[in-house]
Each structure stands twice: as structure tokens, then as C-alpha cells.
Amino acid sequence: MSTENTAVRQAPRGERIADWADGRLGIYGLAKANMRKIFPDHWSFMLGEVALYSFIIVILTGVYLTLFFHPAMNEVVYHGSYVPLQGVRMSEAYASTLDISFDVRGGLLIRQIHHWGALIFIAAMFVHMMRVFFTGAFRKPREVNWLFGFLLLVLGMFTGFTGYSLPDDLLSGTGVRFMEGAILSVPIVGTYLSFFLFGGEFPGTDFVPRFFSVHVLLLPGLMVGLLVAHLILVFYHKHTQFPGPGKTNKNVVGMPLLPVYMAKAGGFFFLVFGLIAVIAGIASINPIWALGPYRPDQVSTGAQPDWYMGFSEGLIRLMPGWEINFAGHTLALGVFIPLMIFPLVLAAIAVYPFIESWVTGDKSEHHILDRPRNAPTRTAFGVAWLSVYFILLVGGGNDIWATHFHLSINAITWFGRIGFFVVPVLTFIVTKRICMGLQRRDRDKVLHGRETGIIKRLPHGEFIEVHEPLSREKLHTLTQHHQYEPHEIGPEVDENGVRRKIKRSEKVRALFSRGYYGKENQISKPTAQEYEEITSGHGHH
Amino acid sequence: MSETGSPNDVSEEHLPSERASAEHGAVAAPAGDPFADPGLPPHQHRVQDIDERAAKRSERTVALLFTLSMLATVAFIAAYVAIPVDKSVYIFPIGHISGLNFALGVTLGVALFCIGAGAVHWARTLMSDVETADDRHPIAATPEVKAKVMADFKQGAAESGFGRRKLIRNTMFGALALVPLSGVVLLRDLGPLPETKLRHTLWRKGKLLVNMNTHEPLRPEDVVVGSLTFASPEGLEEDSHDFQKEIAKAALMIVRIQPDNIKDKRTLDWSHEGIVAYSKICTHVGCPVSLYEQQTHHVLCPCHQSTFDLADGARVIFGPAGHALPQLRIGVNKDGYLEALGDFDEPVGPSFWERG
Amino acid sequence: MKKLSARRRHPLAALVVLLFALAVTGGLYAAFAPADKAQAQDSAQSLAIEEGKKLYAVGCASCHGTGGQGTSDGPSLVGVGSAAVDFQVGTGRMPAQQPGAQVPKKPKVYTQTEIDQLAAYVASLGAGPITPKKEQYDPAGADIANGGELFRTNCAQCHNFTGKGGALTGGKYAPELDDVEPKHIYEAMQTGPQQMPSFPDSTMPEEDKRDIIAYLHTVNSKDSESPGGFELGGLGPVSEGLFGWVFGLGVMIAAAIWVAAHTAKAKKS
After folding, report:
1. Region Disordered: which residues (chain B) (predicted)?
2. SS3 for A493?
3. Torsion of CA A509, A511, A514, A517, to 10 degrees
């Protein structure tokens, strides 16, 4: 039976190892499906990669930091090498962060890579999400992956917040104090939640070790799980692609994983890591030694959270100070309302795909991306959402805006209070107009060709601009998109005179659908017939 | 202006001959449809594909980048060993910075970046750049597969007796619903109950107001109009073990206002000759408010800009705080020192449900 | 020219033109903006108070009244002391240029001799804080760590952790403290200029003020160290976030564009 022993040819070493692994793991099957898998090439498809790689970098550097960081809040007197703090009382967490920064060689670099990496990680997730949103990549079959990505963003924000709080410096402590105040505002259970979280009264000596396990174990664990699921789904669904010649809903055009993407994506990891390392080498981030250790009776102006929490800071700064006292209880609406709007702002963008699919009623798969102009209502909604987000960021940094643009902080706050309601409406209308204008321009380009900028004088003296017909590739790209018809409810009374009940939800859906796809809300794309009529007539003019 | 130049610019990439040669990815479109998919454009060669010298150049560039990376790693190790951790250097235009951090960051960055740049340059110039199309397959299963799964499930469910033996089902749900409770119960000892802890501070009748700069008790004559002083209750030392917890409630802000300028009668009554003592802890979410404008008597919170008028019972005049800063009644003891005449008569700091 | 006109319809042309226009506007502005170099003159020595009185009558009386009693345009100067004059005039805040939420610091108009004369005159109107001597404010040998503690308790709430300044209500602000002279810091604490409360010696003794000055000198002067690299204004997470987005994410996207871009094709011959 043992034919292996008598094999004429000894397979190369690498192949033998692969055989060994295949016999136990079945790797050939996996490789067959994936080794030459095609990925489309576009820079915006790499935003998610930036997020992925900075996440890996943050995990690597975070593990290093745990080797030196002491998540403890017992008070010590500092005797390390940073002179302006020698002899100052501080928590051990703060002291060990100073040691990482000043006494561990390279510790400062790793700390700064970790923090810059975290900022870039969340920023990259954010723009990646915006790319997916504005191109409609969240449509069937990718809604679940959209949710996974959204959860990663939210978890990333909280992981960032807990990490930012660990050094127990004066700035982060102020942030934790805010968090305590926010929890206290929760009706009925708020006081209890706060006492349980902090192990008693604020600040206590428990929150750093508790935040530490949340920051290094619980949240990153969840994130790794979600991330793996996110990536598996990307592989499984295959990547979306922009419209263009040869690209259909049934194929994916690009270059194979081995070797091109192996090299490009692998190389891109090193590019991202290298760039973050250089940034950490030249730009200071969270210089905790300048902030001092946390004391609940000290504070500095310009107390802000990291940027990803900035919009929540804006909510809380813009809110008027409403408070209700009744029957021996206090409802601090000035804190509690922003605390409730905070998840709603995030949820607004998270649930959008489901609203859109309900409006369109479309059950088919979409693998060709939308050009944002071809979905004016979606694009306008996204821009309006971004404008709210930006207003809140401005509100969250109102003091910095005030000092650097010589404005009144009260005026900025009032701008934010009004802008929160007005600006999204305006940006929605303007964006939608712009999208329709661009649709009209596309239509003109298809029918009349491209303006060349060449002015021609005709024999009788008239000046005309020469229009050049578009290439077939271009014509296809500009006209390939699907345009929905507005959803019709249909007659309430059928031909036999029987009334049917029209559900309220159906009426709402029809209303939305008109808003999305009614005559005034999208420009119908040119038909082949229109094109033939114009081009066969007098050519281009 | 340049009629001869422009046409070259605009139409080079879609000459009719090129379009005709589209070889792959062709799509069956109705003949004559002007918008039909023309299929993938033909592959165009890069310089490196047709010119071996250019390819060699690319190869050398890639190798150079990888070599640079090796050198940078060596430099990283050298910097780690050679540069003292506390060495400060001046680097234009950054300023006085840690030499080690700068050297390590830049060398590590170069070492990593060059690997990446080399790999990407390799992929871009030397690996095949022929675009190909892969077919997609529908995500949803075929009806046959679905039917088989449903049948399997039904069979499994029936074999388990899950639907038939209701007693088993209901008790199992009961058990599963109850068992997480033990986990919830275990969280009880995360902290003590609030009781009335948030209602009291260290201030008592007769406690002296200790200046936080000098750690000496304050006398009325120390506090001049327009000045700002912070005080803690007598007996609370920085090295005492609950200093943080107590100062978080007891921190005091002391200013002196000309009695004529005090608008609120209670504020004046609770002051000592215009010396007013307010809680330093913001009633919004607990930041130490203390941006005192001595001409307007307004105090601003640096965190969320709640503004209080200290001459008028510290009432809120702007921002998200819901109520005034609590005032501490003060007087002077027989030795001439400022003392508290009791605890705050309301809880300090952020509002909470039981505050009332 | 041919080349230029062929490219003017390039998608990036508008951007290039815009950048060019911005650069030109900025350059012109810089070239023509008024240079505010106050010309100071030497003045002959004379009796300080007498000279000060003359200077006062010319430069200050219109707002503060002929005898320093104050008018609707400026507060009374009786009892503000020489330290207040030395601070206000020495940092260029006085004479004020225009009404506004706050009088900003600017290049000073008077020489130190003239300032001393003005201060002597104002001090003669009523007793007040006296201009400090060098040994009072000289930071050499002071306790920097204690200064840091005091700074965070008394100053940081308005002036930021390391004295980068911050906002107050209605357009007022706490100025940044970069390279402010030790004497002026001392005088500001002593006298409480504008909205700033005072920190008199009775509540903040001389040594405490010196500690604070020493701390500020360590963390916020030309020679201050920023071990981590670019300080980014020392403003905390707002400027860090901005840098992270614009520069951090910006270079990532630039790298991504390079990675994904098509390699230059060989020219058709």
C-alpha cells in the first residue's frame, strides 16, 4: 500500500509542507477559491484598508504599552525624569504613563503611534463609511456588512474614549467627570449606575482598572470578532465596482489577489504603518506631562475629547440648561436630552439603508456602485447628516473657534443651536439641486457631446463652440444606471367597486417614493431614441 | 487659438480602431443601442512591458527601496542604542524635541514605508496589470437547496419533539431566561449604594476656609475686591486617602464683591462683608467652574460654557447648566478667620434623579 | 501658450487658478499691510512725576480724566498703583486703540523711562500695588513643580494648561502667555487687569508667583521643550484631530491614490 515511499520524485519542500497542511486544514480548497480572486482597483476602496491597518497597528502598539502601563489609581509621588512634575502627587496610572514617555526608550514613540493610529483609525472608518454610503454600496446584499461596519465605528469610538481616559491626566479626568455627570442625569437609575461604575463616589480608585479591562479586552475583543466577520463578508460578496465599460452587475473586474493585491495591499500596510510612525516621530499628541495629573478641583480651558467624540461635546455645549424638579426628583434635561440625541445621530445614518430599500422595494442584488449624483435624495441626506455632524463639531470646539477667529463664544453657541436645525435642511436642498444639475449635465453631454472649448466661426459670421460626441465607453458609463419609477398605490376602489384598505405605511411609502423618484426629483436619463434623433439630425452643434 | 492642437488632446483615447478591438468582456447588447456596454477596453502596455531597460530600472528602484529599508532599520537600532532618552535637540521648524523620539520615528517610518513603496512599485510596474473579469454568483440559494434545508430542519425539529413536548420547551426557556440573573446579581458589589453621599460635603459649622495656595486659613482682609481664591475645608490634606473624592465636592471659590453690587439679598446675607463662597463644581456635569471675570462678576465653565452671575446668587445666565451654583454660608470666628456656618444647603455638582 | 490654453479645461485647472489667486492676494496683502512699528523717542530725564503728568495729560487724560478720576470712557486710576501702569502700558495695552470686547496687547508706545514716569504719576494719585523688583519675579531657583500645581489651580482654567490662552464670554478672552516677560506676569497677578481677577500677596505670596512664572517659562517660551514633536498649538484634541484628519488621513489617501492609480502606459507610436 505504501506507494509514497517508493515515489519516484520527491516533491519540493514547500509543496510538501503545503500537502501536510492541506491534509489537515484543507487549504487547497480555500486557495482555489481565493488565490486568484479579483479585486477592483480604486483609491476609495482602500479607505477601509487604512482603517484595517491602523487597527492592527493600534493593537500591536497597545500590547507593547500594556507591558509598561500600571492601571492603578493609588497615589504616588513622582520622582521620574520630567522635572516640572517632580514631587507632585499623582495616580500610579499617570506616573507610569510619564515613565513610558520619558524613561522607556521608544516608549514615547509607541504611545504616539498608538494615539495617532487611533485617531486615523476612526477617521478612516468614518470616510470609508461615507464612501460606502454615497456610492450606495450598502445595498443588497451588503446591508448586514454595513451594520457590522457601523458597530465597529461605534465600538471604536468607545474604545478610544476609554483609552484616552486611562492616563488619568487632567484633561481625560475632566472627560470622565463629564461622563459621570451624564450618567447621573439618567432618570431613576442614574445615581446607581454612577456608583456602580466608579465603585462609589467620583472619582474613587476603581475607574482606571475597570476602563483598562474594557479598553484592552472587552471592546477590542468584540471589534476583532466583528472585523473578521466584516472581512469574510467582503470576500464572500466580492467587491463592488464603479460603472464602466465591461463592468456589469454579474462580474467583478480587476486584478488578482496573487500577486498584484498581495503586493499592493501588503505594501499598503507598510505604507500606512510607516506614515503613522513618521507622524508619531514629528508631531506630539496628548502630551500628558503638560496637562498634569487629574484633580477634581482643577481644570483647563479648551477641555475637549478626541475628535470622534467631538460631536457629542457639541450636543452638550449647544443644549440650553433645562431642568425639571418635581415630587422630590430632578430631571436634568440639559444633560439627558443630548445623551439621548447622541445615539440618534449615529442611528440616523445606520438605519438609512433599510429606509431606502423599503422605499424602493428593490429586492435585487447591486454590485455596481451608484454615482452620487444619480441618487440625489440619498446624497442630499448624507450631506445633510454630515452638515449636522460638522455643526456639532464646531459647537464642541466653540472656545477654540472663538479665540482663533476672534468671535464671541456665545454667538458661536447660538449659531450652533439654530444651525443644528436649519443647516441640514439647507444643505439637503442645495445638494439635491446640485445633483440634479449634474444629472442634467450628464444628459446634455450624452445627447450633445462634450464642450471642447474650441470656438469656430461659421462662414456667415456666427460663432459656435464645437461639441465632440462622447466615446461609447463614456456613453455607457453615463447611461447604465437604473432609474426607479415612483411607487404607485393604485386605485383604492377596484374595477368591481370593492374598496380595499390602504395601509398607512403604504401611503407613507408612496410619498417617500415620489420624493425620491418623482418627476421633479430626478432627471430622466436619455433614451437611445432621443440620442438617435439628435445625432442623426444635424450632428452636433 | 490652437485648433490643430486640441483634437489630439480630446480624442486620442477613444479612436474608433481601439474601440473595435475590444476583445473581452463583450456583452450581448441589442444591436444599434448607442449606450450598449462596449466591453472591457483592450489592455495597453506599460513602458516596462515592452522595454526591458525600463523594467530593469523598475527592478533596481524596487531593490533600492528594500535596501533603504534595511539601512533604516539599522539606523533605528543605532539610534536606540546611541541617543540618550532625555536628549533634547532643536529641529527646524519643529522646535526643541526629544532626539530619540524623532530619530526612532523617522527611521522606523522610513524602514516600513520603503518596504511598502517597494512592494507597490513592484506590483505597479512589473507584475501583470491585465484586468480580468470574475463572474459573480447569486448570494441566495437555489430553490432546491432551500427546499432541502427546510425539509432537514423540519425533520430535525420533529425528531427533537420541540413543538410537541411543550413542558420541556417551556421549562427550558424558563431556565435560560433565569440563568443570566446570577451574572447580574454578581455585579452588585461594583459599588456601594448612593444613599445620601451626594448630599453632603466636608463643610461643617466652624470649619475654617483654607487657602489652597498657602494651605493657611483665610482672613477676611486677605480677600480683596476683584481677587479670586480657592479654598478647601480645614483638615482635608492632599495626602489623605479620600482627598480626591472629598475635594470633588468641597472645592470652594471665593471672591469679594462690593456689597452695593450684590443684587441678590440672600447672596449678601450669606456672605461676609461681600466675601462670597460658592461651590467650584459646576452644576452641569461637574467641571470646576472658575473662569471668573472680575468686572462683570460672571464665572464661566471651561468645559461647556455655562455662565453664572456671582453677584446674583450664581444664577445661570448662559449655557447648559440647569441651576445655580450652591453658595456656602460663611462668617468670621472669634480669632478673625473665615469659617463655614454649615454645609451647603443643597447637593453640589451635577443634578441627579434623587436631588429634588 | 499653446500648452496653457490646451490645459485650461483640465478638471484641476479651476483649483490651480484658485490657489494661484489666493497666493497672489495673500502676497499683496502682506506687501501692503501697514507695518505697525511704533516709533519711540527718547526723552530727557526730568522729575519723574512732573514728566509723567505731562505724558498723562497728552496720552491718557482724554479717557481717564485730567486727574485720573476716570470718565465714561475709562476707569479711575486712583489707587491702581504703579504696577498696573507698568503692566498696561508696558504690554502696549494702553493707550487703547479702539473700543471692543477687550483691549489687546500690542507693541508698546512708550519707552520704559516714560512708562516709569507715568507710573510714578499715577502712583502719586493714590496708594496701590508697586512695580515689582527683579528679585520678586526672577524665576531662577523657583520650584517649577509647585508652580505647575498652582498654575493648574489658579490659572489654567482661563489660560490653558501651558498658557496658550482661552475664550471668555462675549468675545473676551484670556490671552496666550507665550514669552510674556516675568515682570508683566507678576504685575498681572498682582493687579488683575481687565477681566482677570487679582491674586494679591495675601492669598498668593510672592514665592508662589515666582513658582508660577518659573513654570510658565519652562513650558511656554521660545526654549520650551515639546518632546513629542510639533506642539500643534498646544490646544489639545481639537488641533490634534484637525491634524489627524488633514495631514494624517490626507497622506493615507494620497498613498492610496498612488497605489490604486494606473501605471503610465507606453505611448502609442
Report:
1. 1-45
2. strand
3. -40
pLDDT value at residue B289:
92
For residue C25, the model assigns a pLDDT of: 72
| Interface check B208 vs C, CB under 8 A | no
Question: Is C152 at the interface with chain A, CB within 8 A?
Answer: yes
Residue-wise pLDDT tens digits, A353-375: 999 999 999 999 999 999 999 99
Mean pLDDT of A333-343: 96
Question: Which of C195, C202, C227 shows the shortest C-beta gap to B101?
Answer: C227
Nearest CA in chain C to B288: C157
- pLDDT band with cut points at 50, 70 and 90 for residue C44: very low
Q: What is the pLDDT of residues B55-67, one digit of tens each?
A: 999 999 999 999 9
Mark whether C213 and C166 lie in a shared domain.
yes
Residue A519 lies in a domain: no
Q: How confident is the model at residue C41 (pLDDT cuts 50, 70, 90)?
A: very low
Domain count, chain C: 2
Of B338, B327, B341, B335, nearest to B220 (Cα)? Answer: B338
Joined grid coordinates for residue B338: 473665615
pLDDT of residue B31: 54
What CATH number is attached to the domain comprising C196? 1.10.760.10
Q: Is the pLDDT of residue C66 over 70?
A: yes
Same domain, A342 and A467: no
In a domain, C55, yes or no: yes
H or E segment and range at residue A423: helix A409-448
Smallest CA–CA distance from B49 into chain C, residue: C266
Residue B330 has what DSSP assignment? Answer: E
Q: Chains A, B: CB contacts under 8 A, how many?
A: 374
The share of chain A scoring above pLDDT 70, in percent, equals 98
> Is C104 a member of any domain?
yes
Which alpha helices (DSSP H) does B129-282 contain, by range? Answer: 143-160, 166-178, 180-186, 243-250, 265-269
Whether A439 and A373 have beta carbons less than 8 Å apart is answered as yes
Give the end of a domain, one of C76, C100, C129: C129
The grid coordinates of residue C137 equal: 519675579
CB contact under 8 A, A282 and C230: yes
Coil, helix or strand at residue A165: helix
Indicate the residue among C76, C108, C129 that finishes a domain: C129
CA gap C228, A117 in Å, rounded = 15
Judged by a CB distance cut-off of 8 A, whether residue C237 touches chain B is no
Given A348, A370, A392, the domain boundary residue is A370
The predicted structure's pLDDT at residue C45: 38
Residues A83 and A166 in one domain: yes
Instruction: Tell me the ipTM for this assembly.
Output: 0.92
The cell numbers describing B202, all together, are 466636608
> The domain containing residue C197 runs over which residues?
132-224
Containing structural domain, residue A247: 38-370
Identity of the amino acid at C85:
V
Average pLDDT over every residue of A118-128:
97
